[in-house]
Structure formats: structure tokens, C-alpha cells
Amino acid sequence: xxxxxxxxxxxxxxxxxxxxxxxxxxxxxxxxxxxxxxxxxxxxxxxxxxxxxxxxxxxxxxxxxxxxxxxxxxxxxxxxxxxxxxxxxxxxxxxxxxxxxxxxxxxxxxxxxxxxxxxxxxxxxxxxxxxxxxxxxxxxxxxxxxxxxxxxxxxxxxxxxxxxxxxxxxxxxxxxxxxxxxxxxxxxxxxxxxxxxxxxxxxxxxxxxxxxxxxxxxxxxxxxxxxxxxxxxxxxxxxxxxxxxxxxxxxxxxxxxxxxxxxxxxxxxxxxxxxxxxxxxxxxxxxxxxxxxxxxxxxxxxxxxxxxxxxxxxxxxxxxxxxxxxxxxxxxxxxxxxxxxxxxxxxxxxxxxxxxxxxxxxxxxxxxxxxxxxxxxxxxxxxxxxxxxxxxxxxxxxxxxxxxxxxxxxxxxxxxxxxxxxxxxxxxxxxxxxxxxxxxxxxxxxxxxxxxxxxxxxxxxxxxxxxxxxxxxxxxxxxxxxxxxxxxxxxx
RNA sequence: GGCCCCAUCGUCUAGCCCGGCCUAGGACACCAGGUUUUCAUCCUGGCGACAGGGGUUCGAAUCCCCUUGGGGUCACCA
Length: 492
Hints:
Distance between the termini: 78 Å
Oligomer: single chain
Radius of gyration: 32 Å
Strand content: 5-15%
Structural class: mainly alpha
């Protein structure tokens, strides 16, 4: 049996799309599972929109996810080059072969004529298609046009019949060739078109399986016909269900972030991104939600991919992201969060390095509360704030003011706390002592805790208050209580 | 509109290919309760689906047909 060779062939006309990332992941996992090769090819025949920066960003994105490739534009390989624009000579050879066989023909129709043709057809409610005006030109006429300097396009001469292929996710798919237009393979400027190059390159690179998004399903008959005209082995296909936005349509910027990088920047752990992407169209076993990229490789089969499109559920994604964060080691989590903390202006790298243990404890305190790395800064900002400038969030202040005896209690507690701090009580002692103090005073816990939390953090929720006092330092804790005594006493 | 693809809880899905074990399972979200100094975590419970109609069969979520609904695609883009 032939070795599996699959590829991911992005077009460097934008950042790596989240759907593209999933396509890459599934191709890669298939290759790894089957012991085959995974290659990367850059489809840059659209010279207007393709850039080297996008290409680099796409490669980086894939590497970041943990996808590696056996052949590609950056590392080369036996089928180099891996950029389509560098292979146009090969494409011209294929075009010449097809032309010679009569499987393709020169077309001299102008864009204007084509446009008028389409307009007329749609006005008459006919399907837009080329009328094959140039399909049967005499050789002399072709030569004359060529000699006159008219630049032709090359069209594929679609034969009559029906084109069928087995799709690994959909089963048999068939198209009447009448539905397939005599599509353009090579532009007038000599640059080949996607549907043509993809076949040439897949042949030259020995691609055995083509797994791509469902939007390519209608391109497949064109490509199958091309393989057949060339007398080449048709690869196996698998069309992945589309990833949909909340509007049920193909995921677009309209309904949410579409680039892998967006999610990276929003602080989603990459393991969560991978896991979630996998779940869009594939399931490990129907009951295991959390699994690793290794589990994917060990279990992935194209036949298990779902047929229906999947709506991107950001809620579930956030939940999953939180699961990964809770599972993470504090050290790693802190490292992942650090860029976000710095970016938020809370501290510099040097400042965090200088208080490494302190920062680690902060992260540990928030680990079960954040769902993405980017949520950390907003939650811990109070720890970096000036004592008199802690921002009181509405909920926190409301909770504090809700306690009628709150302020008086806080004022008395401040005295006790100052004393306890003086005696260098440990955090545990402080905690136990406070509980005893509240008990002795004969009030409910929240009477003290709500105003105290507001004073210290300005937030309605958060980690244990005594851990916070330790993190803050006793003097700062007292200063914050003093500030709160004034601020909370003021009329609303 | 033509063609193609698809159709299980609001969402992601298991089950479907090889009909019975499905009183349709899991997860997110939501709701209720428990734990807790708060929030969160965690635990318990609840809500909630085989799009509709015909067949085939002793028996259909599973097979077939139709209808409806949704999506994709109709470029000298990929």
C-alpha cells in the first residue's frame, strides 16, 4: 500500500483562519497516525493578495500549535519548491500537455464579452456559464489571434458524462459534467489558476489524500476531470464540515474572531484551542471532552468526521480554556499570563522577576477563576494599585454598604488587625483569629468580610482575604482599610 | 435561482455504516440545591433533541423516498 501523503495548502492572503488550522490539524493527525507524510504548500498564485509576511505568520501559527511538517517551503523536500509561484514552469508543461490532447483550449474572449455573457444569462435566469465560443476554433484562427498578439486564457474542455468520487466523510458524490463550466486554467497573463495548479502540484508531490473544507466540494469534479484528462491517479478526498458562526453561516469576521492569532492574543491556551477545534467535527468517543493532541493522533480517522457544519460555541470554548488553566502548573500559567500583565501596564518584566514568588502566589490564587490568560490582569490590578486609589467595583461597594454594622465593625476590626499584625501573626493565625473575633462580637461573617473585601480589593469576589493581606503586606492592608472607612462613610 | 452537501437537546456531539441492549448517552449554557468569608472551583439534581410525512420490517434515531429547513458554490480568488 502506498504511503500516505497529505498536505495543507494555505493561501498567504491573510492570517491563518481558525478553520484552516483545523484542516491542517486533521491532515497532520491523519498523516501521523498513518505513518505518512504531511507537507505544506503555499498557494500563492494570487499575486495581488499574497504576501511573504502572511506566509511566515501562517507557518508560525502552525508551529505554535505543535504541528510540524515533513516537507515545506521553509525546509524544502524532495518535491521542492513548495510555493506554487515557483512551480509555474511545471504548470505550463501540464497546460501544454492538455492543449496538445485537446483536453484544453485557448480562449480569446475578452473579459468584457464574458461579463456581458454572464449578465445576459442571469437576466434570462440561465445559469452563468461559458458558451464555448472558442472551444472549436480552427488551428489557423488560433495561430492568427496569437500572432496578432491577443493574449488567450486556457480553458479546460469538460467532456460529457458524470463525474463521481468517493468522499471519505460524505460517501459517493456525483456531478453531471453539464454542470461543470469550461473553467479557466491559465489566465491571459500566463498565471495558472487554483483549480489547475492544485492538481498539478498534488500529482507532482504524490498526494494520496486531499482533506479540505467543504467549500471545495464543488471544485472537486473539475479536479477529478483534470486527473482523468492527464491520465493520473485520482487521490482520495474528504471534505470537512464548515465551521459556522453564530448566524449559521461560514465563520466570518462578522460573527467573531476568525484568525488563530486572535485566540492566541485573547489568551486561550493552545492546548485548549487544539482540543476545541478537534471537537468541531470530530469526537474522541462521545464522552471525553478534554483530550490532548496526542490523543487526537492516536485516534483520528477521517471516517469519523461529522458531516454537518458546526457552530463555533464560544461559551464552550471558554469553559474548555478554563479547564486547561486549572490543570496547568502555576509556574507555566504564570509564564503564560506574564505578557498580558505587562501589556496591561501592571508591572514590568523586571518587577515581576524581582517578586517571582509573590507573583506565583497571586497566579495560584486566581487560577480557578480565570478562563483565559488575558483575564488575569483585570482581576489582580488591585494588588498593584495605590492604597487610596483602589477601584471599587459596583458590586463590591454594594455588598459592603449592604451591611448596616459594616463600617463600625471594620473600624473596630482595624484596631484588632493592627495589633495582630504587630504581633507578627501568621496568615493562618490571622484567619482563625478573625473568625474568633467575629464570633466574639456576635455578628455574621459577612458583616466584616464584605466591607473588608471591598476595602482590600474593590472587588466582589476573589481569593481568601488573609492570603490577600499577606500578598498586600500588613501596612498596605491597614492603609486600605483606612481609606475605605472614609470612602464608604461618604454618601453614595 | 441551478447544482452540490447536510439535518439527534439552544450549542458541540455519541448512537446511524452492521435496525432491537435507546426509557436516546456525554459536554457547554441555563435553572435549583450543597460546600465556602465573597467570587470561582467542586459536588448533586433539573430542564432539554431523533425536522415533518410516507414506506420497508415483527421491530427504525438507525435503511429507502418525498417534503421542509439550513449551508456551500456558481471569478482571468483560493
